[in-house]
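User: tokens in, sequence out, please.
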């Protein structure tokens, strides 16, 4: 029975309904609650690459404290949003702000606590994941939230980037959508090759400086942060800090706004990033099928029903022509045109090198005996 890992859902509060309970949390961090402070953190909570140029000038709070304050000011979304006991549900830091992730094995690598404790532990791949049963097509997923949110669905073994497609779930709305997926798997004979030969990477291939494992999205984000670091001499508060590199202040955030064309936000990253695809990959596409408002019902909730269409075709990366095939081809061609085989070439090599050395050694020994 074939099974497919269930999708990961990431939810982020919509910019229009972000409600920050400023007073208590600001005081908890030892920051004076003023209209200027409130305006700045409301803006920071809604920060995007599109509006980053409009960042208010603010220096009352050190930039390296911004992320922790934003984390405490996040909108409350009850746990168990998918009505299941999900051990991977957690809040993650993304380029779009602080988001709630569910069913995401790699979400831990983007949590505030993982970064603050300078943790580089690699989480073992679980033996068993919640999976869609291939024998049952048209499985339904139900998402129920009490706020207007932006949602994204992606591979459980990856993180979202800024250009990940997100769908808005407004309050008092019932949504219907169809989720289709495509899948690429890699056979063992390809895993034994080098990265240069297979042109793709597995998680444990590593190679990134700010993430303990490799995924394409992690590589893209790391490269983007490197561009920001080179051009603005800082790293934004939503990126993992690096020793010796400061966190971008308000003026430097405006600098990022000036260089957004260099950040490949909606483009393929340049070759200098060296971001090769993942060897095993699942991609999800969502297509809306229905949308209805429920204003007449006294509730602020919204509900989305996803019809899951499992992939009918799974693509495999497989080694079609290896070293053994090469030897077979050489032997076949030599046998056809020269009446020789691979063993014949081995014998030629032997008699031209090893046997010749022994022969010369014997001649030298006999010559020495004759002289004596």
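Assistant: Sequence out:
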């Amino acid at each position: 029975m074939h099974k497919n890992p269930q999708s990961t859902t990431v939810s982020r509060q919509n910019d229009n309904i972000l409600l920050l309970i400023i007073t208590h949390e600001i005081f908890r961090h030892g920051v004076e609650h003023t209209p200027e402070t409130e305006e700045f953190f409301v803006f920071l909570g809604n920060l995007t690459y599109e509006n980053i140029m409009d960042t208010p000038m603010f220096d009352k709070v050190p930039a390296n404290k911004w992320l922790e304050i934003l984390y405490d000011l996040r909108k409350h979304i009850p746990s168990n949003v998918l009505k299941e006991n999900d051990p991977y549900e957690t809040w993650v830091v993304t380029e779009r702000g602080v988001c709630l992730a569910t069913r995401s094995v790699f979400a831990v690598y983007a949590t505030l606590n993982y970064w603050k404790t300078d943790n580089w532990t690699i989480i073992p791949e679980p033996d068993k994941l919640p999976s869609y049963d291939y024998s049952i097509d048209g499985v339904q997923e139900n998402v129920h939230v009490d706020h207007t949110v932006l949602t994204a669905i992606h591979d459980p073994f990856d993180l979202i980037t800024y250009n990940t497609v997100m769908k808005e779930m407004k309050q008092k709305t019932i949504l219907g959508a169809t989720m289709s997926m495509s899948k690429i798997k890699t056979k063992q004979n390809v895993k034994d090759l080098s990265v240069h030969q297979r042109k793709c990477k597995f998680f444990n291939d590593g190679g990134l400086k700010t993430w303990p494992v490799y995924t394409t999205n992690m590589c893209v984000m790391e490269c983007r942060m490197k561009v920001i670091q080179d051009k603005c001499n800082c790293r934004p508060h939503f990126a993992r800090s690096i020793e010796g590199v400061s966190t971008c202040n308000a003026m430097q955030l405006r600098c990022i706004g000036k260089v957004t064309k260099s950040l490949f936000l909606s483009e393929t990253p340049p070759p200098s990033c060296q971001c090769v695809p993942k060897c095993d990959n699942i991609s999800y596409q969502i297509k809306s099928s229905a949308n209805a408002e429920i204003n007449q019902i006294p509730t602020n909730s919204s509900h989305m029903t996803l019809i899951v269409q499992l992939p009918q075709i799974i693509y495999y990366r497989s080694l079609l022509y290896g070293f053994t095939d090469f030897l077979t081809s050489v032997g076949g061609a030599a046998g056809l045109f020269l009446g020789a085989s691979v063993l014949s070439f081995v014998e030629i090599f032997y008699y031209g090198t090893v046997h010749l050395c022994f022969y010369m050694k014997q001649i030298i020994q006999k010559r020495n005996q004759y002289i004596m």
